[in-house]
Structures are given as structure tokens and as C-alpha cells.
Amino acid sequence: MATMGSLIGLVNRIQRACTVLGDHGGGAGGEGSLWEALPSVAVVGGQSSGKSSVLESIVGRDFLPRGSGIVTRRPLVLQLHKTDGGHEYAEFLHAPRKRFTDFAAVRKEIADETDRITGKTKAISNVPIHLSIYSPHVVNLTLIDLPGLTKVAVEGQAESIVQDIENMVRSYVDKPNCIILAISPANQDIATSDAIKLARDVDPSGDRTFGVLTKLDLMDKGTNAVDVLEGRQYRLQHPWVGIVNRSQADINKNVDMLSARRKEKEYFESSPEYGHLAHKMGAEYLAKLLSQHLEAVIRAKIPSIIAMINKTNDEIEAQLDKLGRPIGGDAGAQLYTILDMCRAFDRVFKEHLDGGRPGGDRIYGVFDNQLPAALKKLPFDRHLSMQNVRKVISEADGYQPHLIAPEQGYRRLIDSSLSYFKGPAEASVDAVHLVLKELVRRSIAATEELKRFPTLQSDIAAAANESLERFREDGRKTVLRLVEMEASYLTVEFFRKLPTEPEKAADKNTPVSDRYQDNHLRRIGSNVSSYINMVCETLRNTIPKAIVHCQVKEAKRNLLNRFYAHVGSKEKKQLSAMLDEDPALMEKRDALVKRLELYKSARNEIDSVAWK
């Protein structure tokens, strides 16, 4: 089995590495993070409960800021590392290259680092300070000192400070792997203890809670806390521990913590009330008790920690696959990567067109809604009005009016009517072109493999849009040719089948010549309108076919063909420039690689230490 404290020392190192890599969030660790999976001890208590003094007693050093009101304004993650000998020293995560051997300087650094985030106010911050202490006088342990719970805001504090502190404390103690060290002063009713009230709320069974009574020496004469310490007044699953902190006089006299420990031990051994409990009272006993329990909890959690690490490793590997692995340095590998990216983009683009992704349906919308609506709005009623028909027929006849049917007039009316179809035809080409351009943009954004290469993204977008412009021009020429074909050769059979019944009788009061002229012109306009409607139905079907053939099908088949040929002729230096990665993604991939290395190393170390 692992030696005492070896697992805790390992967990300390892993937690520190997690913090360096940012693998933690609010509370003791981010949701699903390795930090969160590793057990630690949160120190909870009301303001002036003696919380800081308990920590200093456990460490054996006077190193925490003191004062009235709220002193701890940021969580302090305190990692204790037992050494075999040598000097004691401390290190802050925010100052990794600086080693503190003067613990008065540690106190000042905590105060300064607190002010750096919160300012010189009484505000709080959930951004933790990380401190490691290396000493032969400590046990391996991770403690998290949290701001003291309070019931009222004082001058200079926001009204929300009471709830803000409780929310911060809860963000740590709510986690199932957090051991709660609930500090309560013995000279107050335990039923009103802020720490016990919160611990009962988040840990009703008491499995995770250790109760600590401070200020036993300050209780009223004739009273004692034996009922609490022996678990009769408030029972926990773990034993209560009594602590006697340094008095203010001792602090003023700079009595060191090791002397204070000896004085505390003498107090319990000589006390008539607590003498029978002396062997399990005091800061030294508390530190060993917590260390033993933390070791046991870690060992019990090893299977779930390993499972969590394995699951996270798989997730990181998948993320790295998604971001893309590092690229080889030779031109062949670079060209292969570029072509692979192009194929990935092309695959997504086709999915948009074919319905696997949204967007392609908008092309059908152009054909089914936009084109018919545009055709319906064409001004044929005005163009084929009696007045305009008379004008066109007269101009076509010239000096000699037509004898039976105005052949030239018919042709002029039809030609001029057919020219109106060019607008909707070209508009449909442009509308589909815009849809295809938008699908190119969406496809580039949706191609995960491309996200790491902003330059290649731009190159592919430019090449795809250049191809779409060519396809649009082909589509425009084709649909205009369809319209021109209708004007080039009229369907004679249509006119041969037109009814030839005699004109209906007109008003007897209208002159005979005018009656014939109006009815004759009305019939011409009606015949041309019928023919135009027939052509309209034909174009309504053939324009979409031409657009799909020239633009959509070509985009599916040949969108990047010219780009492939262009890339194939580039030198290594030019290929490297195209694969210039987004610095943010490079940074993200590097962070993932480091995190993966950390998790793999943690798994191997836990395996090697846990079962020795």
C-alpha cells in the first residue's frame, strides 16, 4: 500500500498542475474537471470564529492577514507538503519563481494579491489565491480557506455581500468530494453556528463534515463544551476536535506557533473538563486526523478518479482530432492536407445542396415562389391594351394597312412581349447565385477541419466564389438564349388553331368602321396574350432547368477544379503560407495537448502510488 501522505502529496501536485493549466473553474474546480474529482478540505466558519488561527495552528506558522471584519476576501487554496527536513518556505502560483522564507512576507503577499483583484475595499472575489507551503512540521494536506460567513453587511460593503459570501462558500462545499471543516466558537451556542448550519444543509448525513470548536479557553466560568466534543449535543459521523488558539496577548508578544502548540497541549492535559479527551484535541491532532481521512477518501475515490480521467482523455483526443493534428513539414504532406481540407469543405457544401444540411431548399424557393411571382407581375395587361395594340399594328403596317391579318404587327407585339421575360430570368440566375454564395460561406464556417487555417479558408472562399461567378455568367447566357429562342421561331400551329368565328354584333350607334377596328384589335391582343401565356408556362419550366444545369450542377461537380490545379503547381513555401494557422486555435490545441499529458501522467502516477 502507499505510504501515509504519498497519495495526498500526489494529489497536491496534480491539483497544482491543473491550476497552472487552468483546468478548474468556480469553486474547487470546474464542472467535470480533474481538480473537482480530487478531494480537498474546505474551511468554513463565521467571521471571528477563529478560522484563520486554526489554519495557522495546523501549519505551525503565523502567515495569514489579520484585522477586524472581513479579512479573507478571496479563497485561499493552501497546499501543505511535508518535507524530510531543511528550511520551510512558501510559493505562490501567481509568483512561481519566487520562494518565500519569511512568513511575514507571505502575509503581505496574500493581502497585496487580494487587493490586486478586489481593490482596497471590503469587496470579495471568487478568484482563488494558490499557496504551497513546504515544511517538515506539516502533514500532506490541501485546505481551502474561504471568506467568513456573516449575517449583516457593514459600511463599505454591498448589500448583497451576505448572500455573495454564502454562494461562494456553497460553490465549494456543495461538491461531493469536498470535506467540510466547520469552525464554531465554543463561547457561542452551537445551535446558532453559521458553519454547522451550512454543513447540515449541504451534508445532512454528516459524512463529509468535521466539527472544530475554538475558543474553549474563553468560555464562561462553570461552563464547558464536553457535550459538544463528545457528540451528545450535535452528532457528526466524525469526532469533534477542540482547539485553543493563541490569545491576543500571545499574538502581540509574537509567541510563535510551535510554542502555541505546546501551550495548547498543556491546556488540554491539565484541564479537569477535557483531560480525558486530551489525546484527540488540538491542532496537531486535527491535522493528522484530516490527513488520514483525506488519504482514505482519495483511496476510495481512485476508481472513479481513474474513470473520470479516462473519459476526459477520450474527450480531449476527440477534440484534438476535430481541431486537427500537427502537419508534416514536407510539401507532399502540406499538399495532402490542403486537398483533404478542400474535400471536407466540398462534402459539407454538397450536403447543403442535397438537403443533409439547411440552405439548399432556398434554391427551390426561387423556382417555386420568386420566379412565378415575377412572371405574374409582368405588365402584359398594359402592353396588350387596345391602345398599345392599335399603336403597334399601325406602326407595323406603315403607309399600307394590312389586308387580312397584321402579320408584322403580331410579330412585333410578340417580340416586345417576350423581351419582358429577360428580367425575371436574369433575376432568378442572380437569386440562385446569392444562395450558392451563402452556402459557400456557411460550408466554410461549418467545416471544422478548416477552422484552424484562416488563410486557406479565404483561398477556398475566393476560388469557390470565382467559380460561381463563371457559372452565373453561363446561367445568364443560357436563360437569355431560351427567351431569344422563343422570339426566334414562333409556334405557328398555335395561331392556326385559333378560333375564326365571326365578330359579335356591336352597338348599332357606333360607326361601322370603328366597330370593326375595336373588335379586330381586341382579338389581336387576346391572341397575343394567349400565346405569351403559353410561352410563360414553357419558360417557367425551362428557366429552372437551365439554372440547375449551368449553376447548381456545375457547383456540385466543379466548384474547386481550377483551385486544385492551381494548388498543385505551388511550391512548399506557398503551401506553408496557405496553412498558416489561427493563433487562437494553435493555443487551444497546445492547451489540450498539455492537459492530455497532465491527465495521462496523473493516471500513471495514481496507478503507481495507490497500490504500492
Automatic annotation (TrEMBL):
CDD domains cross-referenced by the UniProt entry? DLP_1
Matching entries from Pfam families are given as: Dynamin_M, Dynamin_N, GED
Record localization: Cytoplasm, Cytoskeleton, Phragmoplast
Molecular function (Gene Ontology), one example: GTPase activity
The superkingdom of the source organism is Eukaryota
InterPro entries assigned to the protein according to its UniProt record, in alphabetical order: Dynamin, Dynamin_GTPase, Dynamin_GTPase_CS, Dynamin_N, Dynamin_stalk, G_DYNAMIN_dom, GED, GED_dom
What are the residue boundaries of the GED domain, all occurrences included? 521-612
Biological process terms in GO annotation:
cell division
**Transmembrane spans:** none
Describe the location of the Dynamin-type G domain by residue ranges: 35-303
Q: Its family?
A: Belongs to the TRAFAC class dynamin-like GTPase superfamily. Dynamin/Fzo/YdjA family.
Q: How does it assemble?
A: Forms homodimer and may homooligomerize and heterooligomerize to form the phragmoplastin complex. Binds to PHIP1.
Official protein name in the record: Dynamin-related protein 1C
